[in-house]
Amino acid sequence: MTARRGGLGRGLGALIPTSMDGDDFDNGFGLRPGPAPVQGATFREIPVDSVTPNPRQPRMHFDEDALEELAASLREVGLLQPIVVREIMPGRYELVMGERRWRASRLAGLSLLPAIVRDTTDDAMLRDALLENLHRQQLNPLEEAAAYEQLLRDFGATHEELAGKLGRSRSHVTNMIRLLGLPPVVQRRVAAGVLSAGHARALLSLEDPDAQDRLATRIVAEGLSVRAVEEIVAMGEEGPRKTAPRAPRVTSPALHKLAARLSDQLDTRVKVDMGRSKGKITVEFASIEDLERIVAVMTTSEAAAE
Hints:
Mean pLDDT is 77; it is low at 1-9, 20-32 and 240-244. The strands form three sheets. Strands 3-7-5-6-4 form a five-stranded mixed sheet, with helices on one face. It has helices spanning 64-77, 99-108, 123-136, 141-154, 159-166, 170-178, 184-191, 197-203, 209-222, 226-235, 253-266, 288-305; strands spanning 25-26, 31-32, 41-47, 51-52, 83-89, 92-97, 112-118, 270-274, 279-283. The termini are far apart. The longest helix is centred in the C-terminal third of the chain and has 18 residues, at 288-305. The chain folds into three domains: 11-137, Conserved hypothetical protein from pyrococcus furiosus pfu- 392566-001, ParB domain (Alpha-Beta Complex); 182-235, no CATH class; 253-305, no CATH class. The chain is built from twelve helices and nine strands. It is of the alpha/beta class and 306 residues long.
């Protein structure tokens, strides 16, 4: 069985100390404080075969195609989001959360899994402790995104709750989670610090994974700024194509200013295009919840103008 690739970080595992004493640790550049001890939880890497599913798991059916797809991703980048288990006897664990990730890891041939070993039965206490540590730790963008997604999925936290606990905007939380939709090769560059989170968010405006990869390669090779990448995406010049690229569209400064005003007001990316006979406004959103927020902002603005 192949060993787990750990290049992209540990998601929530990066927030939980491997021991519960909370002492400082040496990160190779001198001592700095580690994560605050999380009451009732430790982080470990445990053998895949030491875990048994929760007999009270209400979910009985797991889509085989989706599991295969996740397994293929795990072979590329490893498991970003730890499973949550409880120890039932020395060296044996029962799943609390993450059966889909556990099943996919077995399919991927991983031998070890990152796991949060939970002693407490108080989900709210564990969730709040993780949120506090997430606020304190300096994680790479992929670790941060994975931690956000796992808190949302496993502990029932909302975008609003995450944002409020961390002192960040809801759009920041939403945009960070979107980074997990990038191709594995691009994710590796983000995790390694070759691409910034700003570069990654600009790449998300491209729908084609191959185009994202091509532009990511250009960013590294040419040292492009985030603003330059946004302009390349807007002009449809993300990289070499098999067919001749279209002539770049010329957008007037006035349309750029209007798009920038709308982007600031709605706290998301807005594009304004003008054709020969009609124009188009494109407003990006990351989820239904984010769309509802945008509609609420638009409705409020409309009512204030009347």
